[in-house]
Amino acid sequence: MLLSKGAQKKKSPIATASKTHGGSPKGKTRANWNSMLEKTLVDLLHEHNTPEYKGNNGWTPDAWNKIAKEFQERERYAGFSKVQIQEKEKELKRDYRMLKDARKQSGVSWDEKRCMIQADPPIWDNIIKSFPRAKKFRNKSFPLFEALGELHDGNTAEGTYNFTSTQPNGPDL
Fold it and tell me: Which residue from 90, 162, 86, 101 is spatially nearest to 132, judged by alpha carbons?
């Protein structure tokens, strides 16, 4: 069907929630997340943070199916696929672990009210050298930090008890 210039079709709300990523293979759409969508995802992860849905290696396939379905019901306009939701969870987990490690550096403090790292510029430069992805949090809060900590602390491999074969007795406990 040919449309005149003045009578072009309007985009649906779903189409505006994601866009085609210019360099992506096969014209895949890129999910556009905002803080409210991220919070919805983290809330759903908390709701499914039970032995039935989460094992040692993360959420079960059944849990991901339920999380994706419930996310799509709560955020109908977003139109994200299960894979996009899983990728966002991985990104949030990676950001949480990075900020957790960055907070351990000398001269770094955490502003509870603003949910962000506080440090002098030279220390921030050092943080960014150690954690290049942390640059985006130099002037941006991460309000999901505590909620993600509740989900992942004690459940992610942190290397705390890692030792090499040259350490015959393992780490001192």
Answer: 101
